[in-house]
Amino acid sequence: xxxxxxxxxxxxxxxxxxxLDKVEIAVHLGDVPALVLGSxxxxxxxxxxxxxxxxxxxxxxxxxxxxxxRIMQINPRHPMIVKLYELWQEDxxxxxxxxxxxxxxxxxxxxxxxxLGNPNEFNSKVKSLLMATIGLSxxxxxxxxxxxxxxxxxxxxxxxxxxxxxxxxxxxxxxL
Length: 176
Hints:
By secondary structure, this protein is mostly helical. The chain contains eight helices and three strands.
C-alpha cells in the first residue's frame, strides 16, 4: 500500500502548500478520508490557538518551529482519497485536482483545530470548486444580472403607508 502512494504523498504535500511537514498512510482512520495532526513534539491545533493568543507567544523562535510540524494522515481505502489518487495518476498538473487536494487539506486542518494560514486563498479555492460543480464560468460569475425589483412584504407596505400618513400630518402642522 505504501509503495502505491509513494509518489502521491509528495504531490499531496505540495498541493497543500507549506502547511504540512509530511503525509502518511494510515489505515486506522475508519470512514475519515484524512486527518491533520501535530507531530510528536509539535503543537496541537488547540495549543496553537492558545499560544497565538498569548502576548509573547508569537515572538518565540520555537513557536514557529513547533507550529510547522503538521502531519496529514490519509486513508487509502476512502473513496475520496482513491478518486484523488486516480485524478493525480491521469494528470499530476491538473489544477482542479490540486484545488481539491488543497481544499481537503485546509478543511481537515480546520476540523483538527488548526487555523488557516491564508483564509483568502482557501476561500478562492472553495469558490472555484463550487463554480466548477455547478458549471459556472468565471465570466458568468463576474457578470451581474440586471437589477430586479423586489416586491415588498405586506408588513413593509403597511409601514410605508404609516410613514406616509405621518408625513402628511407634519405638513398640516406646518401650514397652520
